[in-house]
Amino acid sequence: MLIEEVEAECRRLAAHYGYDLDVPVIVNPRLKTTQGRVKFRYQGQRAYPIQIEFSKNLLMTARDEFILEVIRHEMAHYFVLQDTGASHGHDQVWKAWAVKIGCYPRATLKQTILSFSQDAHYQLICEKCRQELGYYQRRGKILKNITKYRSKCCQAAIIVKNINHK
User: Fold this and answer.
1) Residue 90: CA count within 13 A, CB half-sphere
2) Which of 18, 83, 109, 131 is deepest in the core (most CB within 10 A)?
């Protein structure tokens, strides 16, 4: 997905919820394990968003549905900052906005998700419907504790498949 398409979706969401997106939406090639972030600055006691960034790797390798989920996730952070003037992380205030805009209300995309990338070593699959859920390079916290997680599609167990590249 192109950054122009990402920015257009951010603007569409902002307008839909009565906001004028007044910050730049950019690609950050330095983001490796973070898919996106909303940078902000304090003026007095109030925090203001100053920029929304998306990982270059995400935009170049992930499927559109993953990218759209990251966009909604970051826009929930943007809306919370605009509404409250504070960074709420992934607390109940953020979760309320996430649910409102159709985002899964958890920080689910912490690891680098790769779609059909030669760098991926693990593939996640829903045990019930067999839908591909994502691709990972490293055996990080999520993969080591996979039994604590459920698929978004069916709330079923997740299968981790090793990918052997030759």
Assistant:
1) 11
2) 109
Burial of 81 (0-12, 13-18, 19+ CB in 10 A): buried
- Cα 58 to Cα 70: distance, rounded to the nearest angstrom: 9
**pLDDT at residue number 117:** 52
* Kind and range of the H or E run holding 41: strand 36-43
pLDDT classification of 79: cutoffs 50, 70, 90: very high
Would you state the pLDDT for residue 112?
A: 42
State both tokens at 24: 């730049």
State the pTM of this model.
0.68
Long-range contacts of 2-9 (CB under 8 A, 24+ apart): 2/59, 3/27, 3/54, 3/59, 6/54, 6/59, 6/67, 6/71, 9/68, 9/71
| Domains recognised in the chain with CATH numbers | 3-100 (3.30.2010.10), 122-162 (no CATH)
Identity at 105, one-letter amino acid code: P
Determine the angle formed by the axes of helices 64-84 and 3-16, rounding to 10 degrees. Answer: 50
Q: What is the mean pLDDT of the chain?
A: 88
